[in-house]
Known about the structure:
mainly alpha; 6 helices
Amino acid sequence: MQIPTPTPESKPTRRCTGAARISRRRRLGADRQRELRERRRAAGTPEPEALDRAIVDAMRVFLLRHDDSLLRPIDPMSILVLATQFLQAKARRSAAPDGAIPYDGTAVSEAMRLRLLVPPATERGKASHRDAAGV
């Protein structure tokens, strides 16, 4: 039986410190998020934060329209249409000569459907709504 012995040509395995591992994970996470944003931008899909802001702005418009607006029913389709209009207006304002792609109407509709009509991850299991979109 021969016991393996290190040779001068073989390098010792590199051990990372805890700080180096944390830094690497953060860097990988940032890279993953950057790629996700690039894919969304290329597809014309709004960021979830922009989508949420548009929905909240649409709700605010409906709630501030009349003094008794809390007593009136709200049409969900009107909220969705207004939120979509807010997103498209934002896309037109931000469409600069740098070649930024404005939001695609079908991509916005699909993002709204996923954001509002797909149950949260805690109700469906471990998958998130982003997994359902394949994004």
